[in-house]
Amino acid sequence: MTDATRKARWIEQLKSAGIEEAAIDLRHILLAAADEAQIDDMVSRRANREPLSHILGDKPFWTLDLKVTRDVLTPRADTETLVETVLKQVTDRSRALYIADFGTGSGAILLALLSELPDAAGLGVDISESALEIARENAVRNALQDRATFRTGNWAETIPDNSLDIAVSNPPYIASAVIDTLEPEVRDHEPRLALDGGDDGLGVYHILIPELFRVLKPGGLMAVEIGYDQAAPVRALAEAAGFDDVGLTQDLGGQPRVISGRKP
Ligand code: GLN
């Protein structure tokens, strides 16, 4: 069989499994695989709708390369909007800022911020110890381990009042009943813990937003990722918690994506 015939066969296998970007996925697999047996194996896994990130074992985010497994939510390009929102509001990038990322997962948001803020340090909190192992590896992989600490916790429970300059989170915000309607990659392979926001998807924000207010220093900045239809309720929660300058940022697709605010 010629190369072209083999490629066409793999693409056909992916397409008939419902994968629209079959050619792009195959290109990634061809770059990662050592031999034809491994290509066959990876294509079969992808045809079973395993996320490409799990098959390759990593995912680019911001300027970083992150290790990804089924223990963490695969970082999404949309979440870079949160990183941008924060960086835009940091006027002096050389200040010794202290950042915390709640529900840090792979560490993506915290590590991206630290990579841009050379004098900042930060804490990544997650309830999942297996996620934190990945986050710690990602800190080392991106040479940020001296400024990044990771520890288990239930949101901001153990964080002292008025202690942070920046508090960020991409919490679970999908309504429980919606999860079963998502693509198989997400529904069957990504951690529920990172997705499930309860009956209306807003459950975590009710706890998290007042907590972010409590742990921020006066003048501190918070930013949280939201679902496309959650801007109004999350904005209301931020205002009710006492935040000033509450603002919405849209992602590159023009969808509401981030609510931010400042503690007076
Ligand atoms: N954006 C993710 C998705 O649609 C969800 C992330 C989250 O719940 N925080 O799959």
What tags apply to this protein structure?
264 residues, Rossmann fold, 2 domains, 7-stranded mixed β-sheet, 41% helix, binds glutamine
Could you characterize what this model shows?
The structure is a single chain. This protein is an alpha/beta fold. 41% of the residues lie in helices and 20% in strands. It has eleven helices and nine strands. Strands 5-4-3-6-7-9-8 form a seven-stranded mixed sheet, sandwiched between helices. The radius of gyration is 20 Å and the shape is globular. Bound molecules: glutamine. The site of glutamine has 9 residues, from loops.
Task: List strands and helices in order, with pairings.
Elements: H1 3-16, H2 22-32, H3 36-47, H4 52-56, E1 58-61, E2 64-67, H5 80-89, E3 98-102, H6 108-116, E4 121-126, H7 129-141, E5 148-152, E6 164-169, H8 176-179, H9 184-189, H10 203-215, E7 216-225, H11 231-241, E8 244-250, E9 256-262
Parallel strand pairs: 3-4, 3-6, 4-5, 6-7
Antiparallel strand pairs: 1-2, 7-9, 8-9
Helix pairs in contact: 1-3, 2-3, 5-6, 10-11
Bound molecules: glutamine.
CATH class of the largest domain: Alpha Beta
Structural class: alpha/beta
H and E string: HHHHEEHEHEHEEHHHEHEE
Determine the strand fraction and express it as a percent band.
Answer: 15-25%
Which outline best applies? globular
Helix content: 40-55%
Briefly say what this structure is.
With 264 residues, this protein is of the alpha/beta class. It has helices at 3-16, 22-32, 36-47, 52-56, 80-89, 108-116, 129-141, 176-179, 184-189, 203-215, 231-241; strands at 58-61, 64-67, 98-102, 121-126, 148-152, 164-169, 216-225, 244-250, 256-262.
